[in-house]
Design brief:
The protein is an alpha/beta fold. It contains 13 helices and 13 strands. Helix 10 packs parallel to helix 13 and helix 11 packs across helix 13. The protein binds pyridoxal-5'-phosphate (PLP).
Length: 392
């Protein structure tokens, strides 16, 4: 099958920056270039832009603008929240127990693992069911007198499952424990109202909702103490040192504003395309099965596991035909590791190599999806045939 078009189906990995956002950012590289911490007019102009951006984000989060911390991205927000809150709680009252899930992004899971290994924190990793949901009963049972921080992903990056934030928030509040969520994949699609969600800390990243890369937000509820990981100047209420990246902060706020202004339209479009993908692929490839929760999932997110398949091979064949997506197993070293998320959902090791993630955008067309389905069907046939020949 010759390549007829190029179709990007990896919007969960990153999105193109919307030209309207690039335009909004431009003056802050050249005209309003002052250091926002400087006392002169150049500095004040930059500071005004940052404070306006902070108010924009705070409105969408339904929080106070002083509860918004700008960072360099989702990874930093996760690191700062977890290390900062775990250290501060331990210093304050000796609390030494943390709770998370096995389906977190590595920015959370590796930070938690480091806190356990290097700093001697006790760590409980809650089980998830076959759809990727945690159980409130298990959460309740895991909480001890020593628990300080619970971190549970809002919408999973690999299988798209959306966890019940408000219910988790009620549980942590009842026990007076801090609740952090990684909302990096949820941002732009789901509610970020921190009162509704019941979170104390929440991370998002600009490049997942058509803003720039290298900029993020951490919401920190008033009264929550964090020990900074990055010390230096007193930027961001003394929690995150470093000269403000004014253009990127302006870009993130504008991107978030547009995402929520245009959300209904965008979601109607992506939901339709996602359903086309799920129906088309499961109908035409008997070895393909939907992963994650069938309903409680991100509107833009379709994910599958293929029987007896190394999905990295499938991706190569798709890429040769112009379709870009991602697999769940890491293959940067030529020695693929099975997906930890699929293993946690109960898939066997051999199946956990077969995860495929397809994520769509309001820029994606129905023609793109029809073409991508044909390509995936043909690529899967090619890989299965090759595997059969090699096995002989
Ligand atoms: C769920 C989740 N958390 C955190 C991150 C890291 O965000 P950033 O790339 O901004 O560091 C990602 C990025 O893929 C993600 O999907």
């Amino acid at each position: 099958m010759p390549q007829k078009r190029t179709v990007y189906l990896d919007y969960s990995a990153s999105t193109p920056t919307d030209p309207r956002i690039v335009e909004a950012m431009m003056p802050y590289f050249t005209e309003v270039f002052g250091n926002a911490s400087s006392a002169h007019a150049f500095g004040r102009k930059a500071e005004n832009a940052i404070e306006t951006a902070r108010e924009t984000v705070a409105k969408i989060f339904n929080c106070k603008s002083k509860e918004i911390i700008f960072t360099s991205g989702g990874s930093e927000s996760d690191n700062l929240a977890l290390r900062g809150a775990a250290w501060a709680s331990k210093q304050k009252n000796g609390a030494n127990h943390l709770i998370t899930t096995p389906i977190e992004h590595s920015a959370v899971s590796k930070t938690m693992a480091q806190l356990a290994e290097v700093m001697d924190f006790d760590l409980t990793i809650l089980p998830v069911d076959e759809a990727g949901l945690i159980s409130l009963k298990n959460l309740e049972a895991a909480i001890t007198e020593q628990t300080s921080v619970v971190s549970i992903i809002y919408a999973n990056n690999e299988v798209g499952t959306v966890n019940p934030m408000p219910e988790i928030g009620k549980t942590t509040k009842k026990h007076n424990i801090l609740f952090h969520t990684d909302a990096v994949q949820a941002a732009g699609q789901l509610s970020l109202d921190v009162e509704e969600l019941g979170v104390d800390m929440m991370s998002i990243s600009g490049h997942k909702f058509y803003g720039p890369k290298g900029v993020g937000v951490l919401f920190v509820r008033e009264g929550v103490e964090l020990i900074p990981s990055q010390s230096g100047g007193s930027h961001e209420h003394g929690i995150r040192a470093g000269t403000h990246n004014t253009p990127f902060i302006v870009g993130l706020a504008k991107a978030l504003e547009l995402a929520y202004e245009e959300r209904d339209e965008r979601l109607a479009h992506v939901t339709k395309l996602r359903d086309m993908l799920v129906d088309g692929i499961t109908a035409r490839i008997p070895q393909a099965h939907l992963t994650g929760h069938p309903e409680q999932r991100l509107p833009s997110h379709a994910s599958f596991v293929f029987d007896d398949m190394d999905a990295n091979k499938l991706l190569i064949h798709m890429d040769m035909r112009g379709v870009a997506a991602s697999s769940a197993s890491a293959c940067k070293t030529g020695n693929p590791e099975p997906s930890g998320t699929l293993l946690a959902l109960g898939y066997k090791r051999e199946d956990a190599f077969g995860g495929l993630r397809l994520t769509v955008s309001h820029h994606t067309s129905e023609e793109d999806i029809a073409y991508a389905i044909d390509v995936i069907v043909e690529s899967a046939e090619t890989v299965y045939k090759l595997q059969k020949t090699l096995a002989k």
